[in-house]
Amino acid sequence: MIIIFPAALFAADQASAMVYSHGPALLNGNSIPRMSALFSGDLVQTNKDSVANINATGSSVLVLNDSLVQYEGNSVSLEHGGVTVSTSKSLATRAGAVTVSPASSAWTEFEVRDVDGKVRIMARKGDLTVSDDKGSTTLAQGQETTRDEESEKNKKKKRAAGGVVPGAAGGALNSPVAVGIGTGVIVGAAAWAVIQSDDPASPSR
After folding, report:
1. Does residue 106 share a domain with residue 162?
2. Is residue 80 part of a domain?
3. Within a 13 Å sphere around the CA of 139, how many CA atoms are in the beta-carbon half?
């Protein structure tokens, strides 16, 4: 008991939390009755008329209305919508290519909203570290900022792919030159086969 009981408590502290719904909400696609255990990888979804609270050791996350959030133990991943985070455990929030985390282990409160490809970050209490593909910056208490959800690298890849696909759609073998060459090869091969045949088409040939 001395060995097993503390180990079980440690596992529960690391892997689980509780979620409380206020209005119709979903946990992994199923309705949340009122409260439920929450594990790393679970998805919490609210509609326009509901919110949900995620309570873990040292952290609380308010999932705002019309939001989709994945709980990841040491962080939450915001797919869309918004969250308000209060934490003394440096609980981070990810939204696309943007990661928001407390700048220190002190009690920190902040809000992150992800709408139409833009991530809006508000530091309510304590400083934040905001990171994306351009680097990391500090957002001081009381300030707010906006970042692009998608990284510049992904944007460039999409633009490059967009330039290549239309040209490739026709295919090199569909060009007039290629069709003419192919036709000439076929006609030449047919003529050669007739000339080399052991059974000429007529005695004069």
Report:
1. no
2. yes
3. 26
Compute the distance between CA of residue 35 and CA of residue 20 in angstroms, rounded to an integer.
4
Q: What is the pLDDT of residues 10-69, one digit of tens each?
A: 444 444 799 999 999 999 999 998 999 999 999 999 999 999 999 999 999 999 999 999
Residues 74-111: tens digit of each pLDDT? 999 999 999 999 999 999 999 999 999 999 999 999 99
Q: Is residue 203 part of a domain?
A: no
Query: Both tokens of residue 33?
Result: 């009755």
DSSP state letters, 29-55: TEE--SEEEEETT-EEEE-TT-EEEEE
Whole-number Å distance between alpha carbons of 94 and 45: 16
Evaluate whether residue 126 is within a structural domain: yes
- Predicted pLDDT of residue 16: 78
- Write phi, then psi, for 189 (nearest 5 degrees): -65, -40
